[in-house]
């Protein structure tokens, strides 16, 4: 299967153009730090909850901590009719691309 990863700068550009950003990490991870505007749908709830937030014709970019869970989510979305689903990788490069200061 093709590599569905896109880099953080491309994620930023696509979100600015209207792509939906999905955080698939756990609730505690999301509460600790998240990209502003991201929709939280934990990976284990993706099949139950994702279509409350996205339509099959949306551009969807998933992210997690390292890119592994978001890869799973991206592949699941592609297999379930979301043709424009991408893996945005890990949260910290995205925070840099979105120029978000982390709380110390």
Describe this structure in words.
The chain is of the alpha/beta class. The chain has a single domain (8-97), classed as Oxidized Rhodanese, domain 1. The chain is built from 5 helices and 4 strands. The chain has helices spanning 8-16, 27-32, 46-49, 68-79, 91-97, and strands spanning 20-23, 39-40, 59-64, 84-90. The protein has a 4-stranded parallel sheet, with helices on both faces. The chain is globular and about 30 Å long. The N and C termini lie far apart (40 Å). 32% of the residues are buried. The model has no long low-confidence stretch (mean pLDDT 94).
The sequence of SSEs as H and E is HEHEHEHEH
CATH topology: Oxidized Rhodanese, domain 1
**How are the strands of the biggest sheet laid out side by side?**
2-1-3-4
CATH superfamily: Rhodanese-like domain
Radius of gyration: 12 Å
């Amino acid at each position: 299967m093709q590599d569905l990863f896109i880099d953080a700068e491309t994620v930023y550009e696509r979100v600015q153009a209207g792509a939906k950003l999905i955080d698939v990490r756990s609730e505690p991870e999301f509460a600790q730090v998240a990209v502003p505007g991201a929709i939280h749908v934990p990976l284990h709830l993706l099949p139950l909850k994702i279509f409350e937030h996205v339509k099959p014709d949306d551009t969807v970019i998933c992210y997690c901590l390292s890119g592994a869970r978001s890869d799973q989510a991206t592949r699941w979305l592609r297999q379930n009719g979301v043709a424009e689903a991408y893996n945005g990788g890990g949260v910290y490069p995205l925070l840099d691309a979105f120029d978000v200061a982390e709380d110390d």
